[in-house]
């Protein structure tokens, strides 16, 4: 039974805190802090109504390290769960180091002035976390997060080596709005408008954003256009699955979404370069994010399903008598219903598919199922741990998965 401090009060945090409260045997004492305390209070109220559990709330600017350290010392959690924005990763890691507490997040650090999506800044904390005897678990959402766990499960149970990997992220949900993003608009648009990068023969290959499009027939959703783009788990997968010859990430977008995004980009509204407006500097993308629908407001109207998974091709594990399995391809995925997610936690499936793995990753750390070699601390990615206990919890806590053998490698 542990005390946990969650930072951030958006859609992902809301799901994670609800799920923690539903598992009071693991998360006995839940504390929630964010920049706007009223958002924490409304999550706490919903949690109380749905589960009967209390959540203590606080106001915090997570970029103020001394204030974060004070809050951690006051709450005395065993783990700080960072569900604010990627910009806050490093200050929160600094505060965890100073206070000697484990850390977890769902997205890698990004400097505000460049959309880079790299692990290098956080990996550089490894020795300091090791010395302090605490651990940081990076990227415990769905993608990154579950997609890496899916890959490592295939590598443990089906494939000796993985030659080719494709991550397919489909959101078949319809929220009835002309244009809206399903998680933080600023981070989402930075990600989508960045050049695409995929891993091929030992290096990243860069191509223009949204230039490669393929139609794929997703179970429970139907045919959708998906676009190749860069996603941060490609970096950790390339590091921890070194035999990979090719790894790519695909995300679906409707034509209407692409049309709006193209226009906004063409007129400069997605830029992160500050411009002078009425005597003060504003960042066009931040202004755009302020006028777009809030992701947490979409839950009530969103219908349809998400289908996110991994297709991996490689050399199959040997049979029970040592017989060679040859090359095989497996598809492992989860299908999540927006309306079911909303009924359970008051949030749509994109927040749900991120918040549940954040809860599960927290359970892995708090229960000691995942820890560094010889119990030592450090900064770790999802690929470095046994996938089995995490996969069991996915089945038990609302994100059941399915694995199927395909006839052969993907043809796109
Ligand atoms: P939201 O924008 O809905 O919520 C972010 C929250 O962080 C808000 O409550 C915001 O406060 C708070 N916040 C921002 N800055 C600070 C600060 N300086 N100090 C304290 N709190 C702050 O985002 P989401 O819930 O959609 O996403 C949360 C995280 O999850 C993001 O990092 C996102 O990239 C990640 N994510 C990961 C996915 C995965 O699969 N791995 C998928 C989807 C999202 P305020 O309300 O005052 O603005």
UniProtKB/TrEMBL annotation:
Q: What is this protein called?
A: Saccharopine dehydrogenase family protein
Give residue ranges for domain Saccharopine dehydrogenase NADP binding: 4-137
Q: Which Pfam families match?
A: Sacchrp_dh_C, Sacchrp_dh_NADP
Saccharopine dehydrogenase-like C-terminal domain: from which residue to which, for each copy? 141-399
UniProt cross-references to SUPFAM superfamilies, sorted A to Z: NAD(P)-binding Rossmann-fold domains
């Amino acid at each position: 039974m542990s005390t946990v401090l969650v930072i951030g009060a958006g859609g992902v945090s809301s799901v994670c805190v609800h799920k923690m409260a539903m598992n009071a045997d693991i998360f006995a004492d839940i504390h929630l802090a964010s920049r706007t305390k009223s958002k924490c209070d409304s999550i706490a109220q919903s949690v109380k109504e749905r589960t009967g559990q209390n959540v203590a709330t606080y106001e915090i600017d997570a970029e103020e390290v001394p204030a974060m350290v004070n809050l951690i010392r006051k709450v005395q959690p065993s783990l700080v769960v960072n569900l604010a924005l990627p910009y806050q990763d490093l200050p929160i890691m600094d505060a965890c180091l100073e206070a000697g507490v484990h850390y977890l997040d769902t997205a890698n650090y990004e400097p505000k002035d460049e959309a880079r999506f790299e692990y290098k800044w956080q990996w550089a904390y490894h020795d300091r976390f090791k010395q302090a005897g605490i651990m940081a678990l990076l990227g415990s959402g769905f993608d990154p997060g579950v997609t890496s766990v899916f890959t490592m499960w295939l590598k443990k149970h089906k494939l000796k080596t993985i030659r080719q990997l494709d991550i397919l992220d489909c959101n078949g949900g319809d929220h009835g709005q002309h244009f809206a993003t399903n998680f933080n608009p600023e981070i989402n648009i930075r990600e989508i408008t960045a050049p695409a990068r995929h891993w091929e023969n030992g290096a990243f290959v860069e191509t223009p954003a949204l230039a490669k499009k393929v139609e794929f027939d997703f179970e429970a959703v139907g045919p959708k256009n998906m676009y190749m783009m860069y996603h941060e788990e490609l970096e950790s997968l390339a590091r921890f699955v070194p035999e990979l010859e090719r790894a790519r990430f695909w995300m679906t977008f409707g034509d209407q979404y692409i049309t709006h995004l193209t226009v906004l980009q063409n007129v400069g509204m997605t830029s992160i370069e500050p411009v002078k407006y009425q005597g003060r500097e504003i960042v066009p993308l931040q202004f755009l994010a302020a006028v777009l629908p809030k992701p947490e407001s979409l839950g009530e109207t969103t219908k349809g399903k998400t289908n996110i998974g991994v297709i991996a091709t490689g050399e199959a594990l040997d049979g029970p008598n040592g017989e060679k399995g040859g090359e095989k391809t497996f598809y492992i995925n989860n299908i999540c219903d927006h309306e079911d997610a909303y009924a359970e936690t008051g949030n749509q499936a994109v927040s749900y598919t991120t918040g549940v793995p954040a809860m599960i990753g927290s359970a892995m750390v708090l229960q000691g199922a995942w820890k560094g070699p010889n119990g030592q601390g450090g900064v770790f990615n999802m690929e470095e741990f046994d996938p089995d206990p995490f996969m069991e919890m996915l089945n038990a806590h609302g994100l059941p998965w399915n694995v199927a053998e395909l006839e052969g490698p993907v043809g796109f």
